[in-house]
Each structure stands twice: as C-alpha cells, then as structure tokens.
Amino acid sequence: MKRIILEMGTGNDLYGEDYTxxxxxxxxxxxxxxSLILFRSLGFDHADMDVRVTIAVQDPEKxxxxxxxxxxxxxxxxxxxxxxxxxxxxxxxxxxxxxATAAVEAYLDIDPKDWVSA
Length: 118
Known about the structure:
Radius of gyration: 17 Å
Helix content: 10-25%
Strand content: 35-45%
Shape: elongated
Number of helices: 3
Structural class: alpha+beta
C-alpha cells in the first residue's frame, strides 16, 4: 500500500467536554480539505482504499473510535487515538474546552511500474 493522501484537521467541543465530538469535528475538518477525484479520473475503486486516522487528544480513552470511523465516507477505516491535542481549562466555571487534531491518510495498493515519471 502506498500513501496517496494526507490531510490534517482540528476540531473542538467548547462546552460539553466530549472528546469524541471534538475528534469527529477534526476528521470533518480534514475531509473538507480533500477531494479524491483521482479515483474517478484513474478508474480506482474507493472500496480498495485504506484510510488510517490518527486522533490526538489529552484523554485518548474518552474517544469512541467506532463513531470516528463512521465519519469516513469511503474506504476501509482504522482509527488510532494518541495523547496530544489540548484541553483549555476554565477554572472560574470548572469546565474545559477539548481540542482535537486529526491526521487522515489514504492508502492504495498501486504498482509503481504503472506510473511514469515525466
């Protein structure tokens, strides 16, 4: 498999302290930066694409990976959650805003011999 696309995004949950919501918003942000027209142009099937998502938040155990994977409209998704992102604490109101980052990578099984360098 060769990585053909890498997109990054950020998302947040300002009031609910919901890490999954912030992660989903980060994936949405990344997807809105991407257009996979090469599949249509070159005759590849989206079903053959592996999509690897890495989410970074301060409390990785609070992200529901299945919900995040469901945000991917195409391909075979896998989600990994790591420590990162940012929690912004409001000590006055005893709340925190959750900020997540996402890296969305698309892989396709392509034969390098099929590509010609100009």
